[in-house]
Amino acid sequence: MTEAAKSGVTSYELRKDGRLRVITRSVESGQQVLCWIVRAGRFFYGTNPGSSTISLYTVDGKGRVSIGGKDGVIATAGGDAAAEQVATADPNAGRAPGAGPIDMAAAADGRLLYVQNTLAGTVEGFRVGHDGALTLVSTLREGLPVFSGGAGMEGIIAW
């Protein structure tokens, strides 16, 4: 579950009786306004529109959430430790706060992540690396709704 006010993620176990049990309490990224979280392969990415960043999370076999990187921003998990560590990417570096990602969707195979940047009016495609690093492979600008009067594009689907 994401928590916008704290930019945190909490994980739960769904018990057989239907009740929830907290596994990890609010793992905070240090970013602003965590909005959306999506799975791409074995990684989970969260959009932070208030800071124009994307955070990368992992969940271990026991359901524990982790985040890494210097202050939750632009870091890459390295080597064999990648499966238990986290990185963050900032595909919107140099943009004004809030101009960046709001919604995301991953391709079914988890190799590509598509990020919707509402205020910037773009959709960016990223290749997901074996360590969770993101590499920009495309930017779509044409044919998208323009942010105007407090409204813009919302929601994205990938397959």
Automatic annotation (TrEMBL):
Tell me the lineage of the source organism.
Bacteria, Bacillati, Actinomycetota, Actinomycetes, Micromonosporales
**InterPro entries for the chain:** N2O_reductase_N (IPR011045), WD40/YVTN_repeat-like_dom_sf (IPR015943)
Q: What is this protein called?
A: Lactonase, 7-bladed beta-propeller
Entry's Gene3D superfamilies? YVTN repeat-like/Quinoprotein amine dehydrogenase
Q: Which domain of life is it from?
A: Bacteria
